[in-house]
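Quick one, tokens below. Sequence please?
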């Protein structure tokens, strides 16, 4: 029995025992020998076989579909965190993920970034730059110091200054596309996503070529070199964070490094 399957069974059993039978439409009764709902009652609420549900709680090696997990989540009235944990334990993708937490305003993001003493910016779902600080505007001269809207992929592939500013542009551009493909795996069926990719591919043969390669890479840190028109060669250590409850947002920070370090891609 795998640890993950055992944890899934224990998680469901614990939630079941915390449920008040009366609140779920079942009589409390004095003959109940277990606290909370019975296994067969959960199975009834989720429209699955009682035996099948018992096997799930027992951690048996069975295949639990996303549809069955969704019915269990609804039957046990799971909140967004419990539901996400359920699907993660089962190794399944949630077909109907709960709505995200209220979006952070761009004004609040900008206020937070202003307190960071190094170039920093926040990327949205399609890598739109939602907020950035003054240090980032000074680094990305000709882009973030100008009028928006701002998008990182638009900048890399369409802005004439990107090929000069970004050191080893081709390698960085190719890696960015691979990172974006991996990052956007949950957005592939969105009409807006298809339009976004079609626009980039139509406008840049290089983007179209990189996208067709189907390379995928996680967005990782590393040394990033720039050839600034005023300050010359600059080197930074890039670190990217995802925000809790706002997984579509990424905070990118660039820590200055000594100029004699060698960038790695």
């Amino acid at each position: 029995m795998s640890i993950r399957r055992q944890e899934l069974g224990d998680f469901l059993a614990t939630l079941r025992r915390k449920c008040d039978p009366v609140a779920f439409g079942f009589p409390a009764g004095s003959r109940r020998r277990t606290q909370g709902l019975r296994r067969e009652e959960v199975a009834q609420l989720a429209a699955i076989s009682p035996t099948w549900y018992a096997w799930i709680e027992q951690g048996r090696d069975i295949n639990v579909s996303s549809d069955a997990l969704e019915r269990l989540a609804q039957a046990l009235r799971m909140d967004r965190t419990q539901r996400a944990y359920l699907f993660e334990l089962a190794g399944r993708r949630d077909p109907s993920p709960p709505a995200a937490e209220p979006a952070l305003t761009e004004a609040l993001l900008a206020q937070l970034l202003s307190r960071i003493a190094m170039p920093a910016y926040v990327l949205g779902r399609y890598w739109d730059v939602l907020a950035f600080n003054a240090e980032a505007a000074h680094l990305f001269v000709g882009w973030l110091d100008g009028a928006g809207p701002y998008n990182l992929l638009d900048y890399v592939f369409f802005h004439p200054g990107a090929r000069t500013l970004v050191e080893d542009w081709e390698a960085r551009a190719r890696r960015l596309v691979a990172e974006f493909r991996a990052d956007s795996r949950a957005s592939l069926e969105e009409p807006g996503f298809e339009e976004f990719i079609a626009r980039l591919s139509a406008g840049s043969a290089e983007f179209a070529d990189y996208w067709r390669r189907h390379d995928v890479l996680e967005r990782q840190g590393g040394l990033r070199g720039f050839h600034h028109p005023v300050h010359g060669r600059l080197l930074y250590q890039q670190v990217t964070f995802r925000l809790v409850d706002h997984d579509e947002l990424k905070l990118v920070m660039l820590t200055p490094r000594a100029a004699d370090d060698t960038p790695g891609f």
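The chain has twelve helices and five strands. The first helix runs from residue 3 to 18.
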